[in-house]
Amino acid sequence: KQGLSKTRDQFVGKVEEILTGRRKIDDELYEELEEVLIRSDVGVNTSLELVERLRKEVKKRKLQEAEELREVLQELMADLLGTEEAMNFAEQGPSIFLVVGVNGVGKTTTIGKLAHYFRTDGKKVILAAGDTFRAAAIDQLEVWGQRAEVEVIKQKEGADPAAVAYDALQAAKSRGADLVIMDTAGRLHNKVNLMEELRKVKRVIEREVPGAPHEVLLVLDATTGQNALQQAKLFQEVAGVTGIVLTKLDGTAKGGVVLGIQGEINIPVKWIGVGEGMEDLRPFNPQDFAGALFD
Ligand code: GDP
């Protein structure tokens, strides 16, 4: 069920409250809907747009009863979320995924889950411990590497992340790996430093593997709602993000943020995290997501 029960109960629960009870469609109803959407972290612009589109559909289909809006709203949400976006892989040689995000969002866990997912899929995976700022981050990645049964390339705490990237790419070439997943530092105290560091790592990747990185995945914590949106805007600027992993959807009623991200930033959500275990990562399917919400 995609771990969406809290979002379904609270967000959609409130929508349902508005739509049931033999109500007629009127301005007050639209306003209530708008408010629920905004409160559910869908984002102001996206909420207004959704309700605007809803009004148009109601006119077009000549609807009168509030209960008829349920299906239209589900359609509009699915439409906003678009179609499932596949991951990009190298046509030949190793594919390189760079994983970025602020500390605590679930970046290490997500890398472990991705390693497991693709290893189970038959790929030879290598992890690169590029968050050299924290010794704990390197250790934690090693633990995930053991769990997922994939090799982890690392250096000491304080090492140059670009050097770790270089090592990992050499290892990938010599071992014939299919996929390298690279961790990066997640401290945001200094935007300029972060940008410099990511740029340097990217330069090494681009030089060593033409066409890489094939994905720059931004990990966002769904429980942080609007903060996640702000982080997305920042990383889009500094890292050229190609896809989003939205974690901790299992523990939150803020699943509406998926709609906000899709509506306000043009980066597809490609994966969702729905738990702490190795299997708790799902490719994001917009239709299923919208369907699960209104189940
Ligand atoms: P990092 O600092 O970004 O590398 O974050 P971690 O990977 O260490 O994760 C931080 C915490 O979030 C850990 O306790 C994880 O178990 C937890 N976590 C990560 N992803 C999920 C998820 O999808 N659902 C839940 N419930 N917890 C998660």
Automatic annotation (TrEMBL):
One GO term of the biological process aspect: SRP-dependent cotranslational protein targeting to membrane
UniProt cross-references to Pfam families, sorted A to Z: SRP54 (PF00448), SRP54_N (PF02881)
Membrane topology: Peripheral membrane protein
Catalytic activity of the protein: GTP + H2O = GDP + phosphate + H(+)
Coiled coil segments of this chain: 55-86
Enzyme kind, highest EC tier: hydrolase
Domain Signal recognition particle SRP54 helical bundle: 1-81
GO CC terms: cytoplasm; plasma membrane
Gene3D superfamilies hit by this protein: P-loop containing nucleotide triphosphate hydrolases, Signal recognition particle SRP54, nucleotide-binding domain
Gene Ontology MF term list: GTP binding; GTPase activity; signal recognition particle binding
Domain SRP54-type proteins GTP-binding: 94-295
Binding-site residues, GTP: 101-108, 183-187, 247-250
Residues in AAA+ ATPase domain copies: 93-240
Keyword field: Cell membrane, Coiled coil, Cytoplasm, GTP-binding, Hydrolase, Membrane, Nucleotide-binding, Receptor
Matching SUPFAM superfamilies: Domain of the SRP/SRP receptor G-proteins, P-loop containing nucleoside triphosphate hydrolases
Localization (cell): Cell membrane; Cytoplasm
Main location: membrane
InterPro entries in the record: AAA+_ATPase (IPR003593), P-loop_NTPase (IPR027417), Signal_recog_particl_SRP54_hlx (IPR013822), SR_rcpt_FtsY (IPR004390), SRP/SRP_N (IPR036225), SRP54_GTPase_dom (IPR000897), SRP54_N_sf (IPR042101)
Enzyme Commission number(s) of this protein: 3.6.5.4
Known role: Involved in targeting and insertion of nascent membrane proteins into the cytoplasmic membrane. Acts as a receptor for the complex formed by the signal recognition particle (SRP) and the ribosome-nascent chain (RNC).
Self-association and partners: Part of the signal recognition particle protein translocation system, which is composed of SRP and FtsY.
Record-stated family: Belongs to the GTP-binding SRP family. FtsY subfamily.
PANTHER family, sorted: SIGNAL RECOGNITION PARTICLE RECEPTOR SUBUNIT ALPHA
Protein name, per record: Signal recognition particle receptor FtsY
